[in-house]
Design a protein that fits this description.
This is LOG family protein. This protein has about 250 residues and is α/β, with parallel strands linked by helices. The chain has nine helices and seven strands. The chain starts with a helix and ends with a helix.
Length: about 250
Amino acid sequence: MNQPPHSQHPHNPNESQDAVNIREDIAFDIVQESVLGLWKVVNNLTRIRPSKRDRYRVSIFGSARMQRQDPLYEGVLHLASELTVMGCDIVTGGGPGLMQAANEGSVIADPEDLTRSIGIRVDLGFEQDTNPFVEQIYNHQTFFSRLHHFVLISDAFVVVPGGIGTTLEALMIWQLVQARKLHDTPLIFVGQMWADLVEWADKHMTEHKMADPADISIPQCVERFEDAVAILRTAQAQWQQKNQSP
């Protein structure tokens, strides 16, 4: 008597699962290799630096939650206006709060539209839309590409009071200057909260030999927006002199 078809080829219940696992491992390796390959392409592309610009460009990092009636809003608006009068482009995250204050200050101080008010956004899914004072907008899907964009297009960074996102931005720029990935790039911290952060880093990092004193001195801490403007006025003059050299 003929055996039933299924009895001719005994089934191992683990066999198909092993095959699935092997295929998943191979697929993971392929995906990982492809993603790393894409990052290599991105790294190579970013070696092509943007062409020389006619205007100094300052990124301002700060809280998205600060309201217009807060004195800090007016302070950042005034800061951005002063820098715009100097001929600087202003770059922010393009959102509300102190980002809007900076973009607004840029637009108000530039009635002849000689400079740019720029926003570099990331899709958070819960934050408000781009503020109405952004003249040139860039949109990113990831924080990584967005932060890299700030680095690529900015000549100086001013960090005003903010939360976790602002702290991330501040520390990233600090680390890039410390690692000499950025050169001749002012990093200015405005406000006591950042002075406290630097003091904390000095206490816990340098005392335990986890950072050099020179690393801790990279951010220039100031209390007043006018002091930030003075630092950037000098930095802009040096930048202009360098760019005008043959």
